[in-house]
Write a structure and sequence with these properties.
Pfam families: UDPG_MGDP_dh (PF00984), UDPG_MGDP_dh_C (PF03720), UDPG_MGDP_dh_N (PF03721). Keywords: NAD, Oxidoreductase. It contains 17 helices and 14 strands. Strand 1, helix 1 and strand 2 form a beta-alpha-beta unit. The protein has 2 domains: about 190 residues, Rossmann fold, CATH 3.40.50.720; about 230 residues, Rossmann fold (3-Layer(aba) Sandwich). The chain is α/β, with parallel strands linked by helices. The structure holds 1,4-dihydronicotinamide adenine dinucleotide and uridine-5'-diphosphate-glucuronic acid.
């Protein structure tokens, strides 16, 4: 069967790879000509471990082709999967313009009945609205299925091939079964339901995980007040099966292309539907506050930050990705610059900021960890890359200046080792960690 995947970001490319591996013939389509050219030259513009290998294999087996949208005159596939972006609008709502443009584009090129699968994250109620606005009564029968994606960047292929569940929402049983069959090779648990409930599962899952992170961050602050260690507390809580160990890592909070925008969109949706989702608002407030903590900690040890030299290790919103969208690290750098500090930066994958976030003369990119921390009074660890955890901190201290402060924004370093190297260690909620 031939399938068209529209929008080749993380989700689109992983869908292309996963479905090609399952034996389907895939046409990947994007509006970005540069992206298509580079895909056709065997290059992938995102860092996702293992993805290139699966795409290369599919290309070798002639299962995939990549095309710019302008090259498509007619859609001759039975299934079209939409994976375009749904970024935040300034008011927090999801911007659905890419999705709506794509549906109109599909309609103009439809020559047979087909099924649209919405993999982009769209607010609950969107599918029903889109169906009524664009598809109901159209000259060709177009089914609409909500099939939200739950992959995590950095382990996207693992999440595709071994999903916890697959959610398929629709108003036509035949179409639900057709989409369900796409995943036959995965042996996954499939949840079949209506469109709006499927859409809500996606938002509720992201909002719940984000809330779990903000909850543990509140407990971390309490640890700092009471003199307890959050990592030990989180382990103790997480061992309760009803709670689970995941998403209990305290630190500078969640970032990325999805949690922040999806939590904001759910909050917006709740408000305009007459529900004041107080818990979600608290999740957002706590998350914004966590990003300020490293700067507060630096101030408490260094005083005024004007002309202080500070290294920030890590730019990406988490390890295993090159994605810096809504990364807490960027806010920390911005705050440090506002305070007049000199900031040097290092990230193992992200070697530049090709967006106008900061003036070039405001920051310095180090060649490696040692080069970045040279002459600094303090280091902020903003992303828990293995390279930072495994580094020889005694060597780092030699090139730094007093007071040799490490602010561990991800609680990923061993405070005993750091203290033994002669540093002051300051984590998030780790007041007692060095006394173990
Ligand atoms: N990044 C992630 O880990 C996950 C993202 N999602 C959701 O999936 C959706 C896509 O996310 P990403 O892949 O991160 O987005 P992205 O922003 O990285 O990629 C979107 C792609 O769509 C293309 N595009 C935009 N308009 C188009 C059009 N009219 N025709 C063809 N291509 C078009 C863009 O050029 C871009 O390549 C979003 O709704 C997101 O919330 C869901 C689960 C995980
Ligand atoms: O909708 C999405 O796009 C995706 O969003 C997240 O995936 P992702 O953003 O790739 O990354 P996560 O591993 O979930 O981490 C998100 C953020 O939370 C932070 N985090 C995570 C876990 C934790 O315990 N503490 C914590 O601060 C991470 O550092 C990161 O900044 C979800 O985990 C995916 O299921 C979902 O599909």
């Amino acid at each position: 069967m031939r399938i068209m995947v529209i929008g080749l970001g993380y989700v689109g490319l992983v869908a292309v790879a996963g479905l090609a591996k399952a034996g389907y013939q895939i046409t990947g389509v994007d509006i970005n000509i540069k992206k298509i050219n580079s895909l056709n030259n065997g290059k992938i513009d995102i860092y996702e471990p293992g993805l290139k290998e699966v795409i290369d294999e599919a290309r070798l087996n002639q299962r995939i082709s990549f095309k710019n949208i302008a090259e498509i005159k007619n859609i001759d596939c039975g299934i079209v999967i939409i994976c375009v972006g749904t970024p935040s609008r300034p008011d927090g709502a999801a911007d659905l313009s890419q999705v709506e443009y794509t549906i109109e584009w599909i309609k103009e090129r439809t020559i047979n009945s087909l099924t649209i699968i919405m993999k982009s994250t769209v607010p609950p109620g969107t599918g029903e609205l889109l169906y009524k606005k664009y598809l109901a009564g159209f000259s060709y029968k177009i089914n609409y299925i909500s099939n939200p994606e739950f992959l995590r960047e950095g382990q996207a292929l693992k999440d595709w091939f071994y999903p916890d569940r697959i959610v398929i929402g629709g108003n036509n049983n035949k179409a639900i079964e057709e989409v369900s069959a796409l995943y036959d090779s995965l042996n996954a648990r499939i949840v079949k339901l209506d469109i709006t409930s499927a859409e809500l599962i996606k938002y509720a899952a992201n909002a719940f995980l984000a809330t779990k992170i903000s909850f543990i961050n509140e407990i971390a602050c309490l640890c700092d007040c009471l003199g307890a260690d959050i990592n030990s507390v989180a382990t103790g809580i997480g061992l309760d099966n009803r709670i689970g160990e995941g998403f209990l890592k305290a630190g500078i909070g969640y970032g990325g292309s999805c949690f922040p925008k999806d939590v904001r969109a759910l909050n917006f949706l709740s408000t305009i539907n007459g529900h004041n989702f107080e818990l979600l608002r608290a999740t957002i407030i706590v998350n914004s506050r966590q990003r300020l903590l490293p700067v507060q900690k630096l101030r408490s040890y260094l005083g005024n930050l004007v002309n202080k030299n500070i290294a920030v290790l890590g730019l990406t919103f988490k390890p295993g990705t090159d994605d810096i969208r809504e990364s807490p690290s960027l806010d920390i750098i911005r705050l440090l610059l506002d305070e007049g500090a000199n900031v040097s930066i290092y990230d193992p994958i992200r070697k530049n900021l090709n967006i106008n976030l900061f003036r070039k003369d405001q920051i310095r990119f180090g060649k490696n960890i040692l080069d970045t921390v040279k002459g600094t009074e303090a280091v902020v660890v903003a992303t828990e890359w293995d390279q930072f955890i495994d580094t020889n901190w005694s060597e780092i201290k030699i090139v730094m200046n007093e007071p040799f402060l490490i602010v561990d924004g991800r609680n990923c370093l061993d405070p005993c080792i750091i203290n033994n190297c002669g540093f002051i260690y300051s984590g998030i909620g780790r007041a007692k960690a060095h006394e173990r």
